[in-house]
Amino acid sequence: MSASPAVAAAPGTSGRAWTWARATVLASVGGILLGVLTNVLQGVLPGALNQIANSGAVWSVAAFVAGALSARRVGLPVAAVAGLLAEAGLVVGYYGYAEVARDGMGSLFAPLVWVGMACVAGPLFGVAGYRWRGDDPRRRVVSLAALAGVFGMEAIHYIWVLHYAAEAWGCIAVLVLVPLLMGRTHRERGLALLTAVPFSALAYFVFDWLILRTLLG
User: Fold this and answer.
1) What is the pLDDT of residues 117-141, one digit of tens each?
2) Which of 64, 98, 157, 187 has the fewest CB atoms in 10 Å of its CB?
């Protein structure tokens, strides 16, 4: 008289599938909209503020948020996929708007490079956002250090390559504020801040020296 195991499990399976689908769709749509917004702001914001809309670190925040919002509702793989879709959506929205509303995106080389970066940074920061919402303090420290470190990476690039002092100081301020505002304890904040410094140097070496210089010469 009781329902079969397959029938009994169906509602839970269906509910999980709906939650997973909603998380990935929201990440994709949110990424596309943010991509359009960054393109618009790039033509509006003055001076140093213009770099906010031209920042790979800011784009990484989208993947981090997508993973954080997925925590406690979906598993780690879905959070990684949500981060990937958020980053890829940013690329699609940014260059799609450039193609439709501006003078065109130009060569496909730059969009393809950023799609490739999205495939790496998206899952990485999606997982970081997911772990930050967890209960393991060591994983939270690493997650915050990764998020802060990507801004440290940009600060090094602004100082070392572009010589943009104002933008560099802005990124350094974010590097400091991320652990201080998002850490749960004083120990966690201090460890995340200390870890973010070598993370910044490592990220700069990987991104600028191994990736950009290889692709762009």
Assistant:
1) 899 999 999 999 999 999 999 999 9
2) 187
Cα(217)–Cα(125) distance, integer angstroms? 27
pLDDT tens track for 10-58: 446 777 788 888 889 999 999 999 999 999 998 888 877 887 777 889 9
pLDDT tens for residues 175-189? 999 999 999 999 999
pTM of structure: 0.88
Domain range annotation of the chain = 1-134, 137-217
